[in-house]
Amino acid sequence: MTHSRYSRRALAFGLSVLLLFTLLPSVFAQRPARPRAEQAATQPAPQRATARVHPRLVLLIVVDQFRYDYLERFNDLFVPNGLRRLMRDGANWTETNYDHMPTYTAPGHATLMTGAWPAETGIVGNDWPDRDTGKMVTSVSDETAVLLDGEEGEKASSPRRLMASTIGDEIRLKTNDRSKVIGISVKDRASILPSGRHANAAYWFSQRSGRMVSSNYYFNQLPAWVKSFNDARPADKYFGARWERLLPEAEYLKRAGADAPPWENIGPIKGDTNTFPHTVTGGAGAPDSDFYGALDYTPFSNDLLLSFAQAAIINEKLGADEDTDVLTLSFSANDYVGHRFGPYSQEAMDITLRVDRSIAALLDFVNTRVGLQNTVVVFTADHGVAPIPEHASALGLSGGRIRTADVLRAMRLGISARYNRKNEQPDPTIDYVQKFENRDGFYNGNLYFNPVALKRDGINQEEIERVACEAAMTVPGISRCFTRMQLQREGIPFADPVARRIFHGFYARRSGDVIVLYEPFKYFGDAIPATHGSPYSYDTHVPLLMMGSGIVPGRYNQAATPADIAPTLASILGLQAPSNSVGRVLVEGINRK
Ligand SMILES: [Zn+2]
User: Fold this and answer.
1) pTM for the full predicted model
2) Which residues are close to ligand 1, an ion, with C-beta < 5 A?
3) How many angstroms separate the alpha carbon of residue 64 from the centre of ligand 1?
4) How far is the centre of ligand 1, averaged over its atoms, from the C-alpha of 189 (Å)?
5) pLDDT tens per residue across span 375-398
6) Which residues have C-beta within 8 Å of that of residue 256, sequence separation ≥ 6?
Protein backbone atom coordinates (compact mmCIF):
# COMPACT_ATOMS: atom_id res chain seq x y z
CA MET A 1 0.00 0.00 0.00
CA THR A 2 2.82 2.32 0.96
CA HIS A 3 4.83 1.32 -2.09
CA SER A 4 2.12 2.00 -4.61
CA ARG A 5 1.51 5.37 -2.96
CA TYR A 6 5.15 6.33 -3.37
CA SER A 7 5.40 5.23 -6.98
CA ARG A 8 2.14 7.01 -7.80
CA ARG A 9 3.61 10.03 -6.12
CA ALA A 10 6.78 9.86 -8.23
CA LEU A 11 4.71 9.67 -11.39
CA ALA A 12 2.53 12.48 -10.18
CA PHE A 13 5.59 14.61 -9.47
CA GLY A 14 6.80 14.16 -13.04
CA LEU A 15 3.38 15.07 -14.36
CA SER A 16 3.10 18.10 -12.14
CA VAL A 17 6.48 19.41 -13.33
CA LEU A 18 5.28 19.03 -16.91
CA LEU A 19 2.03 20.71 -16.03
CA LEU A 20 3.86 23.52 -14.30
CA PHE A 21 5.87 24.36 -17.41
CA THR A 22 2.71 24.25 -19.47
CA LEU A 23 0.87 26.54 -17.08
CA LEU A 24 3.59 29.06 -16.35
CA PRO A 25 3.12 31.26 -19.43
CA SER A 26 -0.61 31.63 -18.72
CA VAL A 27 0.10 32.59 -15.10
CA PHE A 28 2.42 35.32 -16.31
CA ALA A 29 -0.14 36.40 -18.87
CA GLN A 30 -2.72 36.99 -16.15
CA ARG A 31 -0.43 38.68 -13.68
CA PRO A 32 2.39 40.50 -15.45
CA ALA A 33 5.40 40.71 -13.17
CA ARG A 34 6.34 44.26 -12.25
CA PRO A 35 9.91 45.32 -11.56
CA ARG A 36 10.84 45.00 -7.89
CA ALA A 37 11.55 48.70 -7.41
CA GLU A 38 8.07 49.59 -8.62
CA GLN A 39 6.48 47.12 -6.23
CA ALA A 40 8.43 48.53 -3.32
CA ALA A 41 7.43 52.07 -4.25
CA THR A 42 3.70 51.33 -4.41
CA GLN A 43 3.56 49.20 -1.28
CA PRO A 44 4.82 50.61 2.03
CA ALA A 45 7.25 48.19 3.65
CA PRO A 46 5.23 47.10 6.72
CA GLN A 47 2.18 46.32 4.61
CA ARG A 48 4.03 44.41 1.92
CA ALA A 49 2.93 40.83 1.71
CA THR A 50 5.30 38.01 1.15
CA ALA A 51 5.01 37.37 -2.56
CA ARG A 52 2.17 35.01 -3.29
CA VAL A 53 4.07 31.88 -4.18
CA HIS A 54 2.13 28.65 -4.22
CA PRO A 55 3.21 27.13 -0.89
CA ARG A 56 4.94 23.77 -0.96
CA LEU A 57 4.54 23.19 2.74
CA VAL A 58 2.05 24.11 5.43
CA LEU A 59 3.81 23.88 8.78
CA LEU A 60 1.55 24.02 11.80
CA ILE A 61 3.53 24.42 15.02
CA VAL A 62 1.52 23.97 18.20
CA VAL A 63 2.84 24.37 21.70
CA ASP A 64 0.59 22.47 24.07
CA GLN A 65 -0.43 24.93 26.80
CA PHE A 66 1.04 28.24 25.64
CA ARG A 67 -0.72 31.38 26.84
CA TYR A 68 -0.70 34.47 24.64
CA ASP A 69 0.94 36.50 27.40
CA TYR A 70 4.11 34.38 27.20
CA LEU A 71 4.83 36.14 23.90
CA GLU A 72 4.83 39.45 25.79
CA ARG A 73 6.37 38.36 29.11
CA PHE A 74 9.41 36.73 27.53
CA ASN A 75 9.62 38.56 24.20
CA ASP A 76 13.01 40.17 24.89
CA LEU A 77 14.48 36.80 25.91
CA PHE A 78 13.49 35.04 22.71
CA VAL A 79 16.08 34.45 19.98
CA PRO A 80 15.75 36.49 16.77
CA ASN A 81 14.98 33.52 14.49
CA GLY A 82 12.27 31.79 16.53
CA LEU A 83 8.99 33.28 17.74
CA ARG A 84 10.38 36.78 17.24
CA ARG A 85 10.96 35.99 13.58
CA LEU A 86 7.33 34.90 13.27
CA MET A 87 6.17 38.13 14.98
CA ARG A 88 8.51 40.30 12.89
CA ASP A 89 8.12 38.71 9.46
CA GLY A 90 4.62 37.36 9.93
CA ALA A 91 1.14 38.33 11.03
CA ASN A 92 0.37 38.40 14.75
CA TRP A 93 -3.27 38.20 15.84
CA THR A 94 -2.99 39.43 19.41
CA GLU A 95 -6.63 38.84 20.39
CA THR A 96 -7.07 35.17 19.52
CA ASN A 97 -9.40 33.27 21.82
CA TYR A 98 -10.92 29.84 21.75
CA ASP A 99 -14.67 30.21 21.60
CA HIS A 100 -15.38 26.82 23.12
CA MET A 101 -15.24 25.01 26.42
CA PRO A 102 -13.67 22.71 27.54
CA THR A 103 -10.29 24.16 26.64
CA TYR A 104 -8.41 20.87 26.63
CA THR A 105 -5.75 19.38 24.37
CA ALA A 106 -7.96 17.21 22.14
CA PRO A 107 -10.75 19.76 21.47
CA GLY A 108 -8.15 22.48 20.79
CA HIS A 109 -6.08 20.35 18.42
CA ALA A 110 -9.25 19.18 16.65
CA THR A 111 -10.28 22.79 16.02
CA LEU A 112 -6.99 23.98 14.52
CA MET A 113 -7.15 22.36 11.09
CA THR A 114 -10.91 21.83 10.84
CA GLY A 115 -11.92 25.41 11.60
CA ALA A 116 -14.71 23.90 13.67
CA TRP A 117 -15.73 23.77 17.33
CA PRO A 118 -16.21 20.58 19.37
CA ALA A 119 -19.91 20.99 18.54
CA GLU A 120 -18.93 20.03 14.98
CA THR A 121 -15.73 17.98 15.41
CA GLY A 122 -17.33 15.81 18.10
CA ILE A 123 -14.12 16.05 20.14
CA VAL A 124 -15.71 17.19 23.40
CA GLY A 125 -12.78 16.34 25.69
CA ASN A 126 -9.56 14.38 26.00
CA ASP A 127 -11.79 11.57 27.19
CA TRP A 128 -15.45 11.12 28.00
CA PRO A 129 -18.01 8.49 28.95
CA ASP A 130 -19.32 6.82 25.81
CA ARG A 131 -23.10 6.32 25.88
CA ASP A 132 -23.01 3.67 23.13
CA THR A 133 -20.66 1.26 24.91
CA GLY A 134 -20.97 2.38 28.54
CA LYS A 135 -17.19 2.72 28.66
CA MET A 136 -14.75 5.57 29.05
CA VAL A 137 -13.11 6.47 25.74
CA THR A 138 -10.43 8.93 24.71
CA SER A 139 -10.70 11.30 21.77
CA VAL A 140 -8.56 8.91 19.70
CA SER A 141 -8.89 5.51 21.37
CA ASP A 142 -9.79 2.79 18.89
CA GLU A 143 -10.32 -0.82 19.90
CA THR A 144 -9.99 -1.92 16.29
CA ALA A 145 -6.58 -0.33 15.70
CA VAL A 146 -3.21 -1.97 16.32
CA LEU A 147 -0.22 -0.05 17.64
CA LEU A 148 2.97 -0.21 15.57
CA ASP A 149 6.24 -0.43 17.54
CA GLY A 150 4.58 -0.18 20.94
CA GLU A 151 4.76 -2.65 23.79
CA GLU A 152 2.76 -5.86 24.03
CA GLY A 153 -0.86 -5.01 24.84
CA GLU A 154 -0.36 -1.24 24.49
CA LYS A 155 -3.48 0.45 23.10
CA ALA A 156 -3.55 2.04 19.67
CA SER A 157 -5.26 5.20 18.50
CA SER A 158 -6.85 6.59 15.35
CA PRO A 159 -8.83 9.62 14.16
CA ARG A 160 -12.13 7.69 13.88
CA ARG A 161 -13.92 9.93 16.40
CA LEU A 162 -13.05 13.12 14.52
CA MET A 163 -16.21 14.09 12.65
CA ALA A 164 -14.92 16.96 10.45
CA SER A 165 -12.38 17.08 7.63
CA THR A 166 -9.08 18.92 8.07
CA ILE A 167 -6.95 21.13 5.81
CA GLY A 168 -4.78 18.05 5.26
CA ASP A 169 -7.77 15.98 4.18
CA GLU A 170 -8.92 18.67 1.75
CA ILE A 171 -5.45 19.20 0.33
CA ARG A 172 -5.11 15.49 -0.39
CA LEU A 173 -8.53 15.47 -2.02
CA LYS A 174 -7.48 18.39 -4.18
CA THR A 175 -4.20 16.83 -5.33
CA ASN A 176 -5.57 13.33 -5.76
CA ASP A 177 -3.49 12.17 -2.78
CA ARG A 178 -0.19 13.47 -4.16
CA SER A 179 0.16 15.78 -1.14
CA LYS A 180 1.54 14.29 2.04
CA VAL A 181 0.02 15.03 5.42
CA ILE A 182 1.84 14.04 8.59
CA GLY A 183 1.14 14.75 12.25
CA ILE A 184 3.77 14.50 15.01
CA SER A 185 3.57 14.93 18.77
CA VAL A 186 4.40 13.27 22.06
CA LYS A 187 0.64 12.83 22.56
CA ASP A 188 -1.44 10.64 20.26
CA ARG A 189 -4.38 13.09 20.21
CA ALA A 190 -2.08 16.02 19.37
CA SER A 191 -0.62 14.24 16.34
CA ILE A 192 -3.77 12.52 15.10
CA LEU A 193 -6.42 15.24 15.35
CA PRO A 194 -4.74 18.14 13.49
CA SER A 195 -3.54 15.88 10.66
CA GLY A 196 -6.99 14.35 10.13
CA ARG A 197 -8.72 11.21 8.95
CA HIS A 198 -7.12 11.03 5.52
CA ALA A 199 -3.57 11.84 6.71
CA ASN A 200 -0.67 9.70 5.51
CA ALA A 201 0.59 9.23 9.04
CA ALA A 202 0.49 10.42 12.61
CA TYR A 203 3.31 9.60 15.00
CA TRP A 204 3.45 9.92 18.77
CA PHE A 205 5.74 8.90 21.62
CA SER A 206 5.09 5.70 23.53
CA GLN A 207 5.82 6.19 27.22
CA ARG A 208 6.05 2.43 27.49
CA SER A 209 8.38 1.58 24.65
CA GLY A 210 10.25 4.89 24.41
CA ARG A 211 9.72 4.80 20.65
CA MET A 212 7.84 6.92 18.13
CA VAL A 213 4.77 4.86 17.28
CA SER A 214 1.77 4.91 14.98
CA SER A 215 -1.18 2.67 14.25
CA ASN A 216 -2.34 0.36 11.49
CA TYR A 217 -5.02 2.93 10.71
CA TYR A 218 -2.36 4.51 8.47
CA PHE A 219 -0.26 1.56 7.28
CA ASN A 220 0.60 -1.98 8.22
CA GLN A 221 4.15 -1.26 9.22
CA LEU A 222 6.19 1.80 10.07
CA PRO A 223 8.25 3.32 7.26
CA ALA A 224 11.90 2.20 7.29
CA TRP A 225 13.14 5.64 8.34
CA VAL A 226 10.94 5.56 11.46
CA LYS A 227 12.22 2.12 12.35
CA SER A 228 15.82 3.23 12.03
CA PHE A 229 15.05 6.39 14.04
CA ASN A 230 13.72 4.13 16.81
CA ASP A 231 16.53 1.59 16.48
CA ALA A 232 18.96 4.31 17.56
CA ARG A 233 16.98 4.54 20.87
CA PRO A 234 16.93 8.37 20.72
CA ALA A 235 15.06 8.76 24.02
CA ASP A 236 17.59 6.75 25.99
CA LYS A 237 20.38 9.28 25.54
CA TYR A 238 18.51 11.59 27.93
CA PHE A 239 18.62 9.09 30.76
CA GLY A 240 20.10 10.90 33.77
CA ALA A 241 20.22 14.19 31.87
CA ARG A 242 20.01 17.36 33.95
CA TRP A 243 17.58 20.10 33.03
CA GLU A 244 19.27 23.34 34.07
CA ARG A 245 18.12 26.92 33.63
CA LEU A 246 19.01 28.33 30.24
CA LEU A 247 19.83 31.80 31.63
CA PRO A 248 21.27 33.05 34.95
CA GLU A 249 18.95 32.52 37.92
CA ALA A 250 18.58 36.28 38.48
CA GLU A 251 16.49 36.53 35.30
CA TYR A 252 14.10 33.89 36.65
CA LEU A 253 13.90 35.50 40.09
CA LYS A 254 13.03 38.79 38.40
CA ARG A 255 10.29 37.39 36.17
CA ALA A 256 8.97 34.27 37.86
CA GLY A 257 10.03 34.58 41.49
CA ALA A 258 11.47 31.85 43.70
CA ASP A 259 12.06 28.36 42.36
CA ALA A 260 9.95 26.61 45.01
CA PRO A 261 7.18 28.89 46.31
CA PRO A 262 4.69 27.38 48.81
CA TRP A 263 1.95 26.88 46.20
CA GLU A 264 4.28 24.77 44.05
CA ASN A 265 3.12 21.75 45.98
CA ILE A 266 3.72 19.07 43.40
CA GLY A 267 4.07 16.05 45.67
CA PRO A 268 6.80 13.45 45.29
CA ILE A 269 8.30 12.92 41.82
CA LYS A 270 10.34 9.78 41.36
CA GLY A 271 14.03 10.62 41.16
CA ASP A 272 13.48 14.40 41.11
CA THR A 273 12.45 17.41 43.21
CA ASN A 274 10.59 20.61 42.41
CA THR A 275 13.78 22.72 42.10
CA PHE A 276 16.40 23.16 39.42
CA PRO A 277 18.32 21.26 38.24
CA HIS A 278 15.87 18.48 37.38
CA THR A 279 17.43 15.08 36.83
CA VAL A 280 15.56 12.81 34.45
CA THR A 281 15.50 9.18 35.49
CA GLY A 282 11.92 8.63 36.62
CA GLY A 283 13.54 6.95 39.65
CA ALA A 284 14.67 4.08 37.44
CA GLY A 285 18.16 2.56 37.21
CA ALA A 286 18.01 2.26 33.42
CA PRO A 287 15.66 3.55 30.69
CA ASP A 288 12.20 2.11 31.29
CA SER A 289 8.59 3.27 31.19
CA ASP A 290 9.04 5.33 34.38
CA PHE A 291 11.90 7.16 32.71
CA TYR A 292 10.01 7.66 29.44
CA GLY A 293 7.10 9.07 31.44
CA ALA A 294 9.45 11.44 33.29
CA LEU A 295 11.01 12.52 29.99
CA ASP A 296 7.67 14.02 28.95
CA TYR A 297 8.04 16.55 31.78
CA THR A 298 11.27 17.97 30.42
CA PRO A 299 12.38 20.01 27.41
CA PHE A 300 14.28 16.93 26.23
CA SER A 301 11.07 15.40 24.88
CA ASN A 302 10.62 18.53 22.77
CA ASP A 303 14.19 18.01 21.48
CA LEU A 304 13.34 14.42 20.60
CA LEU A 305 10.26 15.58 18.73
CA LEU A 306 12.24 18.20 16.83
CA SER A 307 14.75 15.64 15.59
CA PHE A 308 11.91 13.32 14.56
CA ALA A 309 10.23 16.16 12.65
CA GLN A 310 13.49 16.91 10.85
CA ALA A 311 13.82 13.23 9.94
CA ALA A 312 10.24 13.29 8.63
CA ILE A 313 10.90 16.34 6.45
CA ILE A 314 13.99 14.70 4.95
CA ASN A 315 12.68 11.16 4.50
CA GLU A 316 9.16 12.00 3.39
CA LYS A 317 10.50 14.82 1.17
CA LEU A 318 7.98 17.24 2.65
CA GLY A 319 7.73 20.46 0.68
CA ALA A 320 9.85 19.03 -2.13
CA ASP A 321 7.39 19.63 -4.95
CA GLU A 322 4.43 21.70 -6.06
CA ASP A 323 1.86 19.51 -4.33
CA THR A 324 1.54 21.25 -0.99
CA ASP A 325 2.38 18.99 1.95
CA VAL A 326 1.23 19.49 5.52
CA LEU A 327 3.26 18.88 8.66
CA THR A 328 1.61 19.41 12.02
CA LEU A 329 3.97 19.36 14.98
CA SER A 330 2.77 19.73 18.54
CA PHE A 331 5.29 20.16 21.39
CA SER A 332 3.80 18.55 24.48
CA ALA A 333 6.43 19.07 27.19
CA ASN A 334 5.22 22.62 27.89
CA ASP A 335 1.85 21.24 28.95
CA TYR A 336 3.33 18.64 31.30
CA VAL A 337 5.61 21.23 32.86
CA GLY A 338 2.86 23.84 33.12
CA HIS A 339 0.53 21.40 34.88
CA ARG A 340 3.17 20.47 37.39
CA PHE A 341 4.68 23.87 38.16
CA GLY A 342 2.10 26.43 37.02
CA PRO A 343 2.35 29.29 34.48
CA TYR A 344 4.31 31.62 36.77
CA SER A 345 7.02 29.11 37.68
CA GLN A 346 10.69 29.22 36.75
CA GLU A 347 10.16 25.90 34.99
CA ALA A 348 7.34 27.26 32.78
CA MET A 349 9.50 30.26 31.95
CA ASP A 350 12.49 28.09 31.08
CA ILE A 351 10.60 25.66 28.87
CA THR A 352 9.02 28.61 27.06
CA LEU A 353 12.47 30.02 26.28
CA ARG A 354 13.63 26.59 25.21
CA VAL A 355 10.70 25.86 22.92
CA ASP A 356 11.37 29.21 21.24
CA ARG A 357 14.89 27.94 20.46
CA SER A 358 13.47 24.65 19.17
CA ILE A 359 11.13 26.58 16.90
CA ALA A 360 14.09 28.68 15.69
CA ALA A 361 16.01 25.52 14.83
CA LEU A 362 12.98 24.08 13.04
CA LEU A 363 12.41 27.26 11.00
CA ASP A 364 16.09 27.40 10.03
CA PHE A 365 15.90 23.76 8.98
CA VAL A 366 12.75 24.31 6.92
CA ASN A 367 14.34 27.36 5.34
CA THR A 368 17.30 25.27 4.19
CA ARG A 369 15.26 22.33 2.97
CA VAL A 370 12.10 23.94 1.58
CA GLY A 371 12.59 27.70 1.84
CA LEU A 372 10.42 29.74 4.18
CA GLN A 373 9.18 31.70 1.17
CA ASN A 374 7.64 28.43 -0.04
CA THR A 375 6.11 27.64 3.33
CA VAL A 376 3.14 28.87 5.33
CA VAL A 377 4.02 28.67 9.00
CA VAL A 378 1.29 28.81 11.63
CA PHE A 379 2.11 29.03 15.32
CA THR A 380 -0.56 28.64 17.97
CA ALA A 381 -1.60 26.68 21.08
CA ASP A 382 -4.42 24.35 22.02
CA HIS A 383 -5.24 26.22 25.24
CA GLY A 384 -3.69 28.33 28.00
CA VAL A 385 -3.63 27.57 31.71
CA ALA A 386 -4.84 29.01 35.01
CA PRO A 387 -2.51 29.95 37.83
CA ILE A 388 -2.19 27.34 40.58
CA PRO A 389 -5.32 28.01 42.73
CA GLU A 390 -3.25 28.39 45.90
CA HIS A 391 -1.10 30.97 44.11
CA ALA A 392 -4.19 32.85 42.94
CA SER A 393 -5.56 32.80 46.51
CA ALA A 394 -2.28 34.09 47.91
CA LEU A 395 -2.65 37.09 45.59
CA GLY A 396 -6.22 37.76 46.69
CA LEU A 397 -7.74 36.34 43.51
CA SER A 398 -10.63 33.93 43.96
CA GLY A 399 -8.54 30.76 43.62
CA GLY A 400 -9.87 27.47 44.88
CA ARG A 401 -10.44 23.79 44.23
CA ILE A 402 -13.89 22.27 44.00
CA ARG A 403 -14.35 18.59 44.73
CA THR A 404 -16.42 16.92 42.04
CA ALA A 405 -17.74 14.52 44.72
CA ASP A 406 -19.34 17.53 46.49
CA VAL A 407 -21.07 18.69 43.31
CA LEU A 408 -22.28 15.19 42.48
CA ARG A 409 -23.56 14.70 46.04
CA ALA A 410 -25.47 17.98 45.89
CA MET A 411 -27.08 16.99 42.59
CA ARG A 412 -27.98 13.52 43.89
CA LEU A 413 -29.53 15.01 47.04
CA GLY A 414 -31.52 17.52 44.97
CA ILE A 415 -32.77 14.73 42.69
CA SER A 416 -33.67 12.52 45.64
CA ALA A 417 -35.49 15.36 47.41
CA ARG A 418 -37.60 15.94 44.30
CA TYR A 419 -38.27 12.36 43.11
CA ASN A 420 -38.15 10.38 46.37
CA ARG A 421 -40.44 12.58 48.46
CA LYS A 422 -41.60 9.67 50.58
CA ASN A 423 -37.98 8.89 51.39
CA GLU A 424 -38.28 5.28 50.26
CA GLN A 425 -35.37 2.95 50.95
CA PRO A 426 -33.60 1.88 48.88
CA ASP A 427 -33.80 5.24 47.16
CA PRO A 428 -35.32 4.65 43.67
CA THR A 429 -33.32 7.61 42.31
CA ILE A 430 -30.04 5.87 43.09
CA ASP A 431 -29.47 4.85 39.47
CA TYR A 432 -30.65 8.06 37.79
CA VAL A 433 -27.03 9.00 37.16
CA GLN A 434 -25.47 6.64 34.61
CA LYS A 435 -22.46 4.55 35.59
CA PHE A 436 -19.59 4.03 33.17
CA GLU A 437 -17.23 1.20 34.07
CA ASN A 438 -18.36 1.52 37.70
CA ARG A 439 -17.71 5.24 37.89
CA ASP A 440 -20.44 7.83 38.19
CA GLY A 441 -21.27 9.68 35.01
CA PHE A 442 -20.03 13.06 36.16
CA TYR A 443 -16.98 13.89 34.10
CA ASN A 444 -15.45 17.15 32.85
CA GLY A 445 -18.34 18.91 34.61
CA ASN A 446 -20.84 16.91 32.52
CA LEU A 447 -23.53 14.89 34.28
CA TYR A 448 -24.89 11.90 32.36
CA PHE A 449 -28.36 10.61 33.21
CA ASN A 450 -29.35 6.97 32.85
CA PRO A 451 -32.07 7.06 30.17
CA VAL A 452 -33.32 3.55 31.08
CA ALA A 453 -33.95 4.49 34.74
CA LEU A 454 -35.57 7.81 33.81
CA LYS A 455 -37.89 6.05 31.39
CA ARG A 456 -38.70 3.32 33.92
CA ASP A 457 -39.85 5.92 36.47
CA GLY A 458 -41.48 8.25 33.95
CA ILE A 459 -39.13 11.13 34.80
CA ASN A 460 -39.36 14.23 32.65
CA GLN A 461 -35.88 14.85 31.24
CA GLU A 462 -36.19 18.62 31.06
CA GLU A 463 -37.34 18.83 34.65
CA ILE A 464 -34.66 16.60 36.14
CA GLU A 465 -31.98 18.56 34.31
CA ARG A 466 -33.28 21.74 35.95
CA VAL A 467 -33.44 20.05 39.35
CA ALA A 468 -29.82 18.92 39.03
CA CYS A 469 -28.69 22.38 37.91
CA GLU A 470 -30.42 24.10 40.82
CA ALA A 471 -28.76 21.69 43.24
CA ALA A 472 -25.32 22.15 41.65
CA MET A 473 -25.65 25.91 41.98
CA THR A 474 -25.86 25.57 45.78
CA VAL A 475 -22.22 24.38 45.91
CA PRO A 476 -19.80 27.24 46.69
CA GLY A 477 -17.62 28.09 43.68
CA ILE A 478 -20.10 26.92 41.03
CA SER A 479 -20.98 29.85 38.79
CA ARG A 480 -23.15 28.55 35.97
CA CYS A 481 -25.10 25.48 34.98
CA PHE A 482 -26.50 24.56 31.57
CA THR A 483 -28.96 21.86 30.58
CA ARG A 484 -29.14 19.71 27.46
CA MET A 485 -32.63 21.02 26.72
CA GLN A 486 -31.35 24.61 26.88
CA LEU A 487 -28.46 23.86 24.53
CA GLN A 488 -30.36 21.70 22.05
CA ARG A 489 -33.10 24.25 21.70
CA GLU A 490 -30.47 26.95 21.31
CA GLY A 491 -32.19 28.88 24.04
CA ILE A 492 -28.91 30.42 25.10
CA PRO A 493 -28.12 34.11 24.59
CA PHE A 494 -25.34 34.24 22.00
CA ALA A 495 -24.18 37.61 23.30
CA ASP A 496 -23.23 35.82 26.52
CA PRO A 497 -19.68 34.65 25.79
CA VAL A 498 -19.64 31.95 28.46
CA ALA A 499 -22.95 30.46 27.26
CA ARG A 500 -21.68 30.61 23.68
CA ARG A 501 -18.49 28.77 24.60
CA ILE A 502 -20.48 26.05 26.38
CA PHE A 503 -22.74 25.77 23.34
CA HIS A 504 -19.73 25.44 21.00
CA GLY A 505 -18.41 22.64 23.22
CA PHE A 506 -21.65 20.66 23.20
CA TYR A 507 -21.97 17.66 20.89
CA ALA A 508 -25.31 16.01 21.51
CA ARG A 509 -24.25 12.37 21.15
CA ARG A 510 -21.21 12.71 23.41
CA SER A 511 -21.80 15.54 25.88
CA GLY A 512 -23.66 15.19 29.19
CA ASP A 513 -27.18 16.28 30.14
CA VAL A 514 -26.11 18.92 32.62
CA ILE A 515 -22.95 21.02 32.34
CA VAL A 516 -21.58 22.64 35.47
CA LEU A 517 -19.08 25.52 35.42
CA TYR A 518 -16.92 26.96 38.20
CA GLU A 519 -15.90 30.55 38.93
CA PRO A 520 -12.65 32.02 37.51
CA PHE A 521 -9.38 30.83 39.13
CA LYS A 522 -11.14 27.75 40.49
CA TYR A 523 -11.37 24.27 39.09
CA PHE A 524 -12.39 20.71 39.79
CA GLY A 525 -10.09 18.38 41.69
CA ASP A 526 -6.84 18.53 43.55
CA ALA A 527 -4.79 15.95 41.70
CA ILE A 528 -3.06 18.47 39.40
CA PRO A 529 -1.29 21.61 40.68
CA ALA A 530 -2.33 23.78 37.69
CA THR A 531 -4.79 23.11 34.92
CA HIS A 532 -7.01 24.48 32.13
CA GLY A 533 -10.40 23.72 30.61
CA SER A 534 -12.45 26.82 31.44
CA PRO A 535 -14.02 29.46 29.16
CA TYR A 536 -11.95 32.17 30.91
CA SER A 537 -9.29 34.14 29.09
CA TYR A 538 -6.28 32.59 30.83
CA ASP A 539 -7.40 29.35 29.12
CA THR A 540 -8.79 30.74 25.85
CA HIS A 541 -6.31 33.49 24.91
CA VAL A 542 -3.56 31.94 22.77
CA PRO A 543 -1.01 33.13 20.21
CA LEU A 544 -1.80 33.08 16.52
CA LEU A 545 1.15 33.84 14.27
CA MET A 546 1.22 33.18 10.53
CA MET A 547 4.20 33.75 8.28
CA GLY A 548 5.15 33.08 4.71
CA SER A 549 3.56 32.66 1.39
CA GLY A 550 0.53 34.95 1.03
CA ILE A 551 0.71 36.47 4.53
CA VAL A 552 0.79 40.24 5.10
CA PRO A 553 3.12 40.93 8.05
CA GLY A 554 1.66 43.04 10.84
CA ARG A 555 0.16 43.16 14.28
CA TYR A 556 -3.61 42.69 14.15
CA ASN A 557 -5.84 43.51 17.10
CA GLN A 558 -9.02 42.28 15.47
CA ALA A 559 -10.75 39.50 17.34
CA ALA A 560 -9.70 36.12 15.99
CA THR A 561 -10.11 32.50 16.98
CA PRO A 562 -8.09 29.34 16.29
CA ALA A 563 -11.07 28.24 14.17
CA ASP A 564 -10.02 30.96 11.72
CA ILE A 565 -6.78 29.16 10.85
CA ALA A 566 -8.32 26.50 8.60
CA PRO A 567 -10.54 28.79 6.48
CA THR A 568 -7.62 31.22 6.14
CA LEU A 569 -5.29 28.44 4.96
CA ALA A 570 -8.03 27.18 2.63
CA SER A 571 -8.27 30.65 1.14
CA ILE A 572 -4.49 30.97 0.67
CA LEU A 573 -4.23 27.50 -0.86
CA GLY A 574 -7.35 27.73 -3.01
CA LEU A 575 -8.93 24.78 -1.27
CA GLN A 576 -12.40 23.68 -0.45
CA ALA A 577 -12.77 24.68 3.20
CA PRO A 578 -12.94 21.72 5.62
CA SER A 579 -16.40 20.22 6.04
CA ASN A 580 -17.49 22.04 9.18
CA SER A 581 -15.34 25.13 9.00
CA VAL A 582 -17.10 27.97 10.83
CA GLY A 583 -14.20 30.40 11.31
CA ARG A 584 -13.65 33.56 9.30
CA VAL A 585 -10.94 34.15 6.72
CA LEU A 586 -8.45 36.51 8.39
CA VAL A 587 -8.61 38.89 5.42
CA GLU A 588 -6.66 41.65 7.17
CA GLY A 589 -3.53 39.47 7.19
CA ILE A 590 -3.56 37.80 3.80
CA ASN A 591 -2.64 38.97 0.36
CA ARG A 592 -5.92 39.45 -1.48
CA LYS A 593 -4.46 40.19 -4.89
ZN1 LIG B 1 -2.98 20.09 29.70
Assistant:
1) 0.91
2) 335
3) 7
4) 12
5) 999 999 999 999 999 999 999 999
6) 344, 345, 346, 348, 349
